[in-house]
Amino acid sequence: MLADRISQLTPSATLSLNAKVKQLQNQGLPVINLTVGEPDFEPPEILKQALMATASQDCHHYTPVSGNFQLRQVIAKRYFDTYQVQYQPDSIIVSTGAKQVLYNALASLVNPGDEVIVYTPTWSTYIEQIKLLQGVPVLITLEPPFQLTAAHLESKITSKTKAIILNYPHNPTGQIISLIEL
């Protein structure tokens, strides 16, 4: 039997629509899928070859939770070369995706009743993760052009606020917070 808290979650509208689109496509209907944001192209051949070469080496064992150290070194170098920002490999985490990292962070921070500020529109998973942890999502509804401001946040922060999710570039609007507001 599932935990009671699971019944409080709202199914993902995005995943429900994606399933419906795939069902229609499987029936031969020419439906364009604009739901989950999956690439509509194959990975580059050089990447596929590198993955196959790596798989044939003796590197199929568990890695540290934060990811392979050599990979984190390469990422640190890339950030320095591209953005002139210096990160140490120990400050970098390689993960299965942003949603998993966010859930791990929230699970480390949020106690039942703690508030987490999220602005909408947003990726629905964020709200469901907060609810799953028995936190309280505090929503800021933004109107076009969907620019979050300090004033939006100030009106929502309380003594129960434990976290604020700042998602940039913002999914789904693509907006970026201005340096002044940040």
Structure description:
There is one protein chain. The chain is mainly alpha-helical and 182 residues long. The protein folds into 2 domains: 42-94, no CATH class; 96-182, 3-Layer(aba) Sandwich (Aspartate Aminotransferase, domain 2), CATH 3.40.640.10. The protein is 36% helix and 9% strand. It has 6 helices and 3 strands; from the N terminus they run H-H-H-H-E-H-E-H-E. It has helices at residues 13-26, 45-55, 69-83, 98-109, 124-132, 150-154; strands at residues 115-120, 136-141, 161-164. The chain has a 3-stranded parallel β-sheet with strand order 2-1-3, covered by helices on one side. Helix 4 (98-109) packs parallel to helix 5. The longest helix has 15 residues, at 69-83. It is globular and about 55 Å long. The mean pLDDT is 91.
